[in-house]
Amino acid sequence: MQKGMKLDEFLINHTNLEMAKLLLALAEGCKVIGRLVNNAGLNDITGTTGETNVQGETVQKLDDLSNKILMDYLTASETCAGYLSEENEGIVTLRANAPYTISVDPLDGSSNIDVCAPIGTIFAINERVSQLGAVTEADFLQKGDNTKAAGYVIYGSSTILIFSVGKGVYGFTLNTQDGEFRLSNIDMKTPEKGKIYSINQGNIGKFTDGMKNFIQYCVESDKETSRPYSLRYIGSMVGDVHRNLLKGGIFMYPANKGETKGKLRLLYECIPMAYLLENAGGMATDGNQRILELQPTEVHERSAIFIGSKNLVEKAHEFLKG
Ligand code: P6P
């Protein structure tokens, strides 16, 4: 294995043919999304469609476009039986007799497009559990420990596909010269000790005392533990998690008075990120138990999330339980 290796060469040696075809189709769709994101200001596709999605959130034009692009590419791959998306009300059958299902946030953080902040596509792939034919919700409502592959594509200063098929985390950077995703990060491990905390501190008035006390711990001076930590918050989960994956740190979106189960979606935001960070030697919980052990009950359900370097997630737990 060497840097610069093409995605298809890597996949052929690291997974089965069906999964390879699915991930390649996903990567091709994300290339199209990346080009649209990079040219958004020129094509009048910034801003909103004027509609709200099933979440009650304003739909950005690019959310809608990205969702349609992924559905088309995944259908054409003939490997994806079912599709769940933040942008669709319910599950959709793509190819009745295909082996896999996918849960996606087609363009997470899309409200940041207009300000050129990093955004991304987040995905988690499962094997279907239902018999052949139309998919059922049971195919999607699986614990994160059943995940077969997961990752994200970050559209930032470069476009990078970060994913795992359960045997380490690998990064493929889009080479703008030849249009190929090429291996750039081999067997990524997140630093066990982080010095960055990432949270929307503006919500502090809605946090529990334990949460407030952990934030106070982060900002206190203590040479031995390299505190105060730095606060970094983009407001785009892919951007915040990607930075922490590389540099170490903790990203938190806790439950609070306004969002009693947190804001982020379990199936297509929390589980894929938790799968990645655990494969990179990190940790991901809902403040109490591993994200990957949670039993989903609704396809769009939310979860609190504490994810990143082990030392910080464990320290957060001490304060949350205190
Ligand atoms: P807040 C983007 O809208 C998103 O879903 C995540 O990407 C991000 O981490 C979070 O919401 C930001 O939420 O409430 O801090 O603006």
What's the N-to-C terminus distance? 46 Å
Largest sheet: 8 strands, mixed
Helix content: 25-40%
CATH architecture assignment of the largest domain: 2-Layer Sandwich
Structural class per helix/strand content? alpha+beta
- Which strand order spans the largest sheet, edge to edge or round the barrel? 4-3-5-6-7-8-9-10
Number of strands: 15
Tally of individual domains: 2
**Average pLDDT, all residues:** 95
Q: What does the radius of gyration come to?
A: 19 Å
General description of the model:
This protein has 322 residues and is α+β, with helices and mostly antiparallel strands. The protein folds into two domains: 7-185, Fructose-1,6-Bisphosphatase, subunit A, domain 1 (Fructose-1,6-Bisphosphatase, Chain A, domain 1, 2-Layer Sandwich), CATH 3.30.540; 196-321, D-Maltodextrin-Binding Protein, domain 2 (3-Layer(aba) Sandwich). Helix content is 30%, strand content 23%. The protein has helices at 7-14, 17-38, 61-77, 209-219, 237-247, 266-279, 310-321; strands spanning 48-52, 58-60, 80-85, 92-93, 100-108, 119-127, 149-155, 159-164, 170-175, 180-185, 196-198, 230-231, 250-253, 283-285, 305-308. The strands form three sheets. An eight-stranded mixed sheet has the order 4-3-5-6-7-8-9-10, sandwiched between helices. The protein has a five-stranded mixed sheet with strand order 12-11-13-15-14, with helices on both faces. A two-stranded antiparallel sheet has the order 1-2. Helix 1 packs antiparallel against helix 2, helix 2 (17-38) runs antiparallel to helix 3 and helix 4 (209-219) crosses helix 7. It starts with 6 loop residues before the first helix and ends with a helix. The model has no long low-confidence stretch (mean pLDDT 95). 6-O-phosphono-alpha-D-fructofuranose (P6P) binds at residues 108-109, 111, 200, 235-237, 263.
